[in-house]
Amino acid sequence: MSLQRTPPQATLTGGSGGGSGSLPNLITYEEDSIDYINTRKRKERCEQEEYKNDIASLRADIMIYFKEMSKTQNENLKIIREEMREIKDEIKAIKSVTENFTQQLKEVNDDIKNIKLNNTTTQEKICHLEKEISQLKTKVNSDNLMAKSPLLKCENLIQELKDRSDRENNIIITGIPEKTDKHFNVRRIHDIEEFTKLATSVIVDCKYVPGKNRPLKISFNKNDTPKLLLQNRAKFPDTVKIYSDQTLTQKQYLQSVKEELKKRLDEGEKDLIIKYIKGIPSIIETKPNQKN
Length: 292
Prior knowledge:
The chain is α+β, with helices and mostly antiparallel strands. Among the domains are: 168-245, Alpha-Beta Plaits, CATH 3.30.70.1820; 247-292, no CATH class. It is 54% helix and 10% strand. A four-stranded antiparallel β-sheet has the order 2-3-1-4, with helices on one face. Strands 5-6 form a two-stranded antiparallel sheet. It is rod-shaped and about 185 Å long. Residues 41-125 form a coiled coil. Keywords: Coiled coil. Residues 1-25 are annotated as: Disordered.
């Protein structure tokens, strides 16, 4: 039986002892002996292998996780792109619908404005028609009254003829300066003096207003003088105007003739004037150089 003993404790350089008893003292060996020294390979622990295997497994798991995560992210990105594309298409559709709605709303507003304008025009026409209907009713009632009462119609005609006969000796003159005096008699004497050689009576044709010249109604003994003055009215100063003394019926008829003249001129007719023929105002056609 062989026994191995632990090598003696080696003395380190410097004479100090220490270290393991199995540590060889290479100083005591000869130089040739060093070549015969073999080193023993140290065995690896099993734990390191386990660590390496665990790390390799962890690395593989991490790579698999990253690959799966990358694949999932790509799929998610693809889904997001598709959803974004759908959202963009929906936004375009919404914009198109909004533009169409705005256009339709504008058209509706225009239609409302036109309706309001047409309504205003219609209301004006209705008011005008109501006025004309009222006038026609009044005229019809008057005509019915005249038709039902021949005596009244005859009386009105006689009164009109008498009124016209009384007015044949009168003329209406405007444009004559009126005396500015607060007393009526002073102003009347002044007016009489202006026409004392022609007139038999002078009547002021409206209420006195200070600072305003009123028309004068002048009466003669016979109707020849008024006719002569009316025929020569163009020879008077421009500021003085002479008119015949007309009844209310004559004034209304003259106004209707003026309205008829305006209507015909607006419709394009030319060279039309109003001329008295046998004392009745009538519309006649004349050449431009014959208007005066």
